[in-house]
Each structure stands twice: as C-alpha cells, then as structure tokens.
Amino acid sequence: MALSKNYAKQVYDIAESQNGYFTAKQALASGYSDRMQTYHVQNGDWVRESRGIFRLSSYPPVQEPELMVWYLWSCNREGVPQAVFSHATALQVYSLSSWNSPKLHMTVPPKFRRMVVPEVLYLHYQQLSKKDITIRYGVPVTKPLRTIVDLLVDGQTPSKYIIEALEEARDQNLILNDEIADANLTEDERELLEALMRKVA
User: Fold this and answer.
1) What is the pTM of this model?
2) Structural domain of residue 107, as residue ranges?
3) Distance CA 160, CA 153 (A)
4) How far is Cα 164 from Cα 171, in angstroms, rounded to an integer?
5) Based on the domain organization, do 98 and 143 belong to the same domain?
6) DSSP state of 173
7) Residue 113 confidence (pLDDT)
C-alpha cells in the first residue's frame, strides 16, 4: 500500500505541474502498468482525455484545458513536448484582436512528424528561438511580437485583424518600441512588420 501511495504521489506531482494532466508514458514511469492505468480510468480516478493522455478526475478545473492536452500530444519519443502555441491561437491566448480561428495553431520543429494530425490542429513547422516564447496557462506560447510577425509571414489572417492585434498589444505594453527595434528578424520579416506599423501610425 505504501508503494501504491508513492506511485500516486509521483503521478499527482506530475499532474500538478501540467494542469492536472499527464501522459500514459509518465504514468508508466511512475509505476503504473497498462493494466493499472485501465483500472484507474474504469474506477473513475483518471479521465482519458485523448489517446495516451489522462486527467486526474479530482483535480480542480483550469482555464483553457485543451491547450495542455494538445501540448502533451506533441511529445516526442522521449516524452518531451515539442509544440508552442502560435499564430491565431496565440492571439486568442492574449485576447488580442477579434480574430478567431476554428483550429488550434501550434508551431513544431521542422523534423516533427505524426502519422495522423487531428483536424482541430494546424501545425506550422519552424524552429523558434527561446527568446520568442513565454508561458501562459502552463504551456509555451509565442510572444506577441513573434505572433504578429508569424501571422504576417503566414498571410492567412486578414490584415485588419493583425493591425488590431498590434494596436492592442502596444496599448497593453505587450510590445514595446525597444523590443521591435531589437527583435531578431529576417530582412523579409522586418519589411513586413515595418509596412504594418506604417498602417498603424
């Protein structure tokens, strides 16, 4: 029984750091066999949210719970999540502009591969700098400036919503002039951003 309590504590500690969620691989590493995992789901202790992803049924509700589910979905073979929420989803996380996308946008490394990508997801393949990432709701999200630049490069979001996002981000001090000046952008990215700023000025 003591060993079982130790297993439970390990899983709880993992889940607590992930908004109540954990993967089957993490449970296995904590001592829960596949059969034990099935038992805890059937017993109502755990909720199976997606293939290989569970939630502690007793864990308090959190904001934007689907973000953690799909973040854990992006784990590589070593169990390390690869995704960063970006583009339109990052705008929604920051509540910038009135633009809404029916899909969750995630940026993943260029070599990221999945046999099947759920329809709810839209994957962008790019190697992001750590300087362009922050944490919101317990998951990584591109910072507002990187988000706006990515939307400009992607070209799928109407410009009026990107202008709206830039104005709101600057009003809320989420993007500062010094940050724009010092941003590590390609020449094309810089040109797109400067053209957008001329529309805002």
Assistant:
1) 0.92
2) 65-200
3) 15
4) 11
5) yes
6) T
7) 92
